[in-house]
Amino acid sequence: MAKIKAEYIWIDGNKPTAKLRSKTKIIDGPVTELSQLPDWGFDGSSTLQAEGHDSDRAMLPVAFVPDPIRGGDHILVMTEVRYPDGNVHETNKRAHLAAVAKDFAASEAWFGIEQEYTFFRGRSPLGWPEGGYPAPQGPFYCGVGADEVFGRDIVEKHMDACLQAGLGISGINAEVMPGQWEFQVGPLGPLEVADQLWIARWLLYRIAEDFGVNATIHPKPVKGDWNGAGAHTNFSTKGMREDGGFAIIEEACKKLGKKHEEHIAVYGADNAQRLTGLHETCSIHNFRYGVSDRGASIRIPLPTVKKGKGYLEDRRPAANMDPYEVCAILLETVCS
Ligand code: ADP
Ligand code: MN
Ligand code: MN
Ligand code: MN
Fold this sequence. Notes:
Elements: E1 2-11, E2 20-29, E3 40-43, E4 56-66, E5 75-82, H1 94-103, E6 110-121, E7 124-125, H2 152-164, E8 169-174, E9 180-188, H3 190-209, E10 214-216, E11 233-236, H4 238-241, H5 245-258, H6 260-265, E12 289-291, E13 298-300, H7 302-307, E14 312-314, H8 323-335
Parallel strand pairs: 1-5, 12-13
Antiparallel strand pairs: 1-2, 3-4, 4-5, 6-7, 6-9, 6-10, 6-11, 8-9, 11-14, 13-14
Helix pairs in contact: 1-8, 2-3, 3-8, 5-8
The structure holds adenosine-5'-diphosphate and manganese (II) ion (3 copies).
């Protein structure tokens, strides 16, 4: 037995977009099973999750991974926020996803989430001239060279950290707006992808912190003729991945079209600033699906059309969406 540092991570009550919080607990290690992790608590009156007179909120560990920053046997612990009596707190969106994932387990749904984000140093995106603008968009997407991309040292460190933590990160790329990047997590099951996306976000903020840089997931970090930031959510069920899957994908698109407003309601705050119909988006007021169409709400990727099976890409979720909510509503709409 040796003492280890366990970083307990939770999601706060900030509105309209919740933020990550964490603090360190010294426990006996190494930890090999979730049941070894004690429940813990925090001051909910400082996180918009309680009033001062009744401020204790509980953290229930739900997943843990090796801590790539501290190394050794240290760990990161994802938790759910509960009341002291164990009841689910209103800000805890994971508990609902856990129930939905169980209900629809037979669908064997997979999710791959593309997390776009923007680095800022002070008030300007990383690499932008102080108080000014860089050259117009065009050369930056997947660019190379000190005049094209900014922050690659942070991006590489983050990717390595995700791999060391055992997260299902599947790639990274520089985005259309300079200073903007993307990483992808998945394909994974609903709870796995959502827990891992939150942990990957925490690692991104934590690593960028050491560079004096902050990463934002605001969907429109710079107003005007600059791309916004999304969290395209790629989705498939077992039926979609098997022969004859294309018909099931089209049926899913039709179901999604009938629930457009309900989905938009949980696809992230300020998404109207991003879903304008410009910059590779479909207007927030319209729903459209199409093959290989980056101006549609739902894109059916070309390989899926060619094979007649595969997955669909919901392009509507904003970068600041909560994956617990997005995965839950996709399962509810498509699988029921
Ligand atoms: P884009 O061409 O839109 O930029 P990306 O390559 O960035 O696509 O992301 C696609 C995501 O879809 C990846 O995370 C990938 O793992 C995921 N994905 C691949 N196949 C499936 C599938 N069958 N179901 C769900 N997600 C999938
Ligand atoms: Mn992508
Ligand atoms: Mn992208
Ligand atoms: Mn995409």
